[in-house]
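Quick review question:
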């Protein structure tokens, strides 16, 4: 967790509070600690030198009770716990701005990271925005474009025309054609799974289907999951959705659709991860079969999971999900567990107002790692096999806003290593590991690029 406070000489100002955290900071912190936390009458809040504690709880305690011997009065009587929590996050944002994540060294196209050297090779450039990628035989790729197209790309980067007859989508905000996943036994059954926003722009939700492609035409479509009409709404946010397979099960995610209170309710599809048999049947051992009208639910309390992957060789399902302003999460997904949104979060609203003072509560799952400030997590994979020996078994997690890929090594006690391995090459939309262990990334700018991470021996 990022440290943030070294208070000295903090002057209490009195005025009417604004709901915006920037106003809170300006009214109560800026006079001593500077507009950007750089210090002034008081010490710097962004120099990494902390005296009064490293945890969020200790930081909040300093704000609440003050440091009388250092001339700082407490704010506990005039700020709520939620407002104090918002200040904690905001000063973390100032810290990140003062010391942004460093890009790996790049010398003539060679990226040098802690354990692995690599280059980027462009496979395909698209003036449209691609959203998801999966892998077909003969080293072909299949990608979705958010505006609705499904497209096959050859190994040498030549695109076929869009597949005919694919489902009609609702294109609104973050909604459109989302993930694509080729069935692990594709050579035997030919199934391809799609997640997309279905309905009209004013009345839509995430749906999952499967079908086959014959002569570049979508055929044999079957519905895997379609929520009841009553759950649709006109929000343009938080559709999810990623797809993952294990044994004869398919897992997929749906975001809270802008209705955060529904993420806790097991009779709503919002903010859930689901498990079904690959043909859409509900497994009898799903955790909410006896309790919910939506027995496909596997876990709840999610905001907007846009990454889902199994650790190779295990049954461990992992996900990253978008927090609000702060609080992006890396979670290990376990059946029946509650991941807390919006009851607990490390983030705040985008306008600086608080969501909750709680970052952890009994009975709710804590994230394995959280990004505060947010990187806007999207896409993740595990490095598998011997293609990248320095990263073997590590998580590679993408960030849209921060334009990064971070490598996370998970040990018995949680996060053991973390580094930025790619930065400022575009918004990272998806990351997938091919059957041969090679890693491919969709990068967005005005359009998008499919690139391969090529290890340097």
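Suggested answer, residue by residue:
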């Amino acid at each position: 967790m990022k440290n943030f406070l070294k208070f000295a000489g903090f002057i209490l100002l009195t005025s009417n509070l604004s709901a915006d955290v920037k106003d809170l900071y300006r009214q109560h912190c800026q006079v001593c600690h500077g507009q950007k936390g750089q210090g002034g009458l008081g010490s710097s809040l962004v120099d990494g030198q902390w005296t009064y504690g490293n945890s969020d709880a200790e930081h909040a305690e300093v704000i609440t009770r003050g440091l009388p011997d250092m001339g700082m009065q407490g704010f506990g009587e005039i700020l709520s716990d939620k407002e104090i929590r918002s200040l904690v996050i905001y000063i973390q944002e100032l810290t990140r701005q003062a010391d942004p994540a460093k890009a790996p060294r790049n010398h003539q196209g060679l990226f040098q990271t802690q354990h692995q050297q690599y280059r980027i090779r462009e496979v395909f450039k698209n003036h449209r925005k691609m959203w998801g990628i999966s892998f077909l035989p003969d080293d072909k790729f299949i990608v979705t474009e958010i505006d609705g197209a499904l497209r096959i790309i050859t190994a040498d980067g030549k695109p076929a025309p869009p597949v005919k007859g694919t489902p009609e989508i609702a294109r609104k905000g973050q909604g459109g054609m989302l993930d694509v996943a080729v069935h692990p036994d594709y050579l035997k059954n030919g199934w391809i799974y799609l997640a997309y926003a279905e309905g009209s722009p004013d009345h839509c939700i995430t749906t999952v289907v499967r079908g086959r492609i014959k002569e570049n035409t979508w055929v044999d479509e079957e519905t895997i999951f379609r929520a009841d009409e009553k759950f649709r709404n006109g929000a343009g946010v938080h559709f999810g959705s990623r797809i993952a397979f294990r044994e004869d099960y398919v897992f997929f995610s749906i975001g809270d659709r802008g209705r955060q209170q529904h993420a806790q309710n097991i009779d709503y599809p919002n903010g859930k991860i689901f498990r079904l048999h690959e043909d859409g049947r509900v497994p009898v051992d799903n955790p909410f079969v006896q309790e919910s009208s939506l027995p496909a639910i596997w876990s709840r309390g999610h905001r907007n999971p846009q990454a889902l992957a199994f650790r190779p060789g295990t049954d461990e399902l992992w996900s990253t999900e978008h927090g609000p302003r702060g609080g992006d999460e890396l979670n290990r997904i376990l059946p029946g567990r509650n991941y807390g949104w919006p009851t607990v979060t490390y983030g705040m609203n985008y306008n600086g107002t608080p969501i909750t003072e709680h970052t952890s509560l009994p009975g709710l799952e804590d994230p394995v790692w959280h990004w505060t400030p947010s990187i806007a997590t999207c896409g993740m994979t595990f490095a598998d096999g011997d293609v990248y020996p320095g990263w073997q078994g590590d998580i590679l997690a993408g960030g849209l806003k921060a334009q990064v890929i971070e490598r996370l090594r998970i040990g018995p006690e949680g996060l053991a290593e973390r580094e930025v391995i790619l930065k400022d090459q575009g918004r990272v939309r998806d990351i997938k590991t091919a059957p041969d262990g090679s890693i491919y990334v969709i990068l967005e700018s005005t359009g998008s690029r499919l690139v391969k991470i090529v290890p340097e021996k």
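Why it works: The chain has five helices and 27 strands. The longest strand covers residues 203-214.
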